[in-house]
Write a structure and sequence with these properties.
Elements (H helix, E strand, L loop, with lengths): L1 H16 L5 E6 L1 H9 L25 H20 L9 E6 L3 E4 L5 H24 L4 H7 L8 H7 L5 E5 L3 E6 L10 H5 L1 E4 L10 E2 L6 E2 L1 H14 L5 E5 L4 E2 L15 H19 L5 E5 L15 E2 L3 E4 L5 E4 L1 H13 L7 H24 L3 H11 L6 E2 L7
Parallel strand pairs: 1-2, 2-4, 3-5, 4-9, 9-11
Antiparallel strand pairs: 5-6, 7-8, 10-12, 11-15, 13-14
């Protein structure tokens, strides 16, 4: 069975790397595999019903995705059982990395749209996290999907409950949700089971925030804070790691490095700074247990359906010049931010205030100096000197435990 194979694979990984790796993730963005692979057919293996895509060769939308996710959860549970018996993994932690959107109602005055946001969250993150917290799928899913949704045995539920030492959150964007009044029961999909449509604009025609480099990406740090508060409220304030967060810009593959200025990535810098601030608020004002943050990504890389057409890296990769790497402005900013984070923290509020002012002042100076510079080679030269060892992760010593 699939879960047995995954257990054996995980066991081998624990055996080979457990003495050097303490933080483990069994599944990364599981709903993407299930929905994109077996409901919309947009990703491998490309299965879906013909009423979703007339060119589809095989698949059953509204059925297969739930079976796939069910098996993934059982595989996760089996892997965790093995992990917990590995004595050579010191202080090990294991979990799942989810990638929720945050949803705002298309019409805040419409109770159906407000309730639609709750259903959408159950289908988005509750689908794969609820079983690891409570041993079963959310009630909204069971009611909507019915007998198309597999069920867990008592033994399986017992293995799933408490199987995540931390909750991984990959957050990028937020959307509006509009409730669907009528759904064709003969043509089910994961989306229609929720009874909602995802919307880029609200009833007033306004976007939720400034659009990023892809059609679904909007710079909305408040959405991340809301996701974190949602997890605290609905799942007993679990330990959380922000396992991915980043900004992608559309890349012009016809241009080489010196035909434009890739190092001045002000929008990425502002995106990262805004989301780190939202996390800070969630920790200190909302009491959420966020304990780590990872930027996606260190380098420009191959991005799913977008290929090399979207760049998320702190470092620019010149695909026209032997894959040479050049740090961007965001890399310099993050390096300095991490440097401040590692300084001794004073207990006095005035010292903390000065530290924050220094960070903000540095960020503004960096933005102005690079924006005012007309010489790309000079900018790149300064970046090379100070960002040779830039990191992409941040762990919060002051988080609530």
């Amino acid at each position: 069975m699939t879960q047995d194979d995954f257990r054996d694979y995980a066991s081998l990984c624990f055996e080979r790397f457990g003495d050097r790796v303490s933080l483990w993730c069994t599944l990364n963005e599981p709903w993407v595999y299930s929905v994109a692979g077996y409901d919309t057919g947009r990703k491998a293996p490309g299965r879906c019903s013909k009423y979703v895509n007339g060119a589809s060769v095989a698949g059953m939308s509204g059925y297969e995705a739930y079976i796939v996710s069910h098996n993934m959860l059982l595989a996760h549970a089996e892997a965790v059982q093995v992990f917990r018996k590995c004595d050579h993994i010191k202080n090990g932690q294991i979990g799942i990395a989810h990638n929720p959107l945050w949803y705002e109602p298309y019409d805040p005055s419409d109770p159906d749209d407000v309730e639609g946001c709750n259903r959408a969250m159950d289908f988005m993150i509750g689908w794969h996290h609820h079983p690891t917290a409570y041993g079963d799928y959310p009630d909204t899913m069971k009611k909507s999907v019915g007998d198309r949704l597999p069920s867990f045995t008592p033994e399986q539920s017992k293995k799933l409950i408490g199987s995540c030492d931390y909750v991984g959150i990959n957050y990028y964007s937020s959307l509006f949700v509009k409730s669907i009044k009528h759904v064709d029961p003969t043509q089910p999909t994961w989306r229609t089971d929720q009874g909602v449509d995802w919307m880029k604009t609200n009833i007033d025609g306004k976007q939720i925030a400034k659009q990023g480099g892809s059609e679904w990406s909007f710079t909305y740090p408040t959405g991340l804070r809301n996701v974190l508060k949602y997890m605290k409220k609905n799942y007993d304030n679990p330990r959380i790691l922000i396992t991915e967060n980043g900004y992608g810009e559309v890349a012009d593959q016809s241009q080489s490095l010196f035909m434009y200025n890739p190092s001045i990535d002000t929008e990425r810098l502002e995106y990262i700074e805004g989301h780190i601030h939202a996390i800070h608020q969630a920790i200190h004002e909302d009491g959420v247990r966020v304990e780590g943050y990872y930027v996606w990504s260190l380098l420009d890389n191959f991005e799913w359906n977008s290929g090399y057409g979207v760049r998320y890296g702190l470092y620019y990769i010149d695909y026209k010049d032997g894959l040479r790497r050049y740090p961007k402005m965001s890399a310099l900013w993050l390096k300095e931010f991490l440097k401040f984070d590692q300084e001794d923290e004073s207990s006095s509020s005035s010292a903390e205030s000065k530290k924050e002012e220094k960070k903000e002042s540095y960020g503004k100076q960096l933005l102005h100096s690079v924006q005012d510079s007309g010489a790309l080679p000079a900018v790149l030269g300064s970046l090379f000197v100070v960002t040779a060892t830039v990191g992409t992760s941040l762990f919060f010593k002051g988080s609530n435990n």
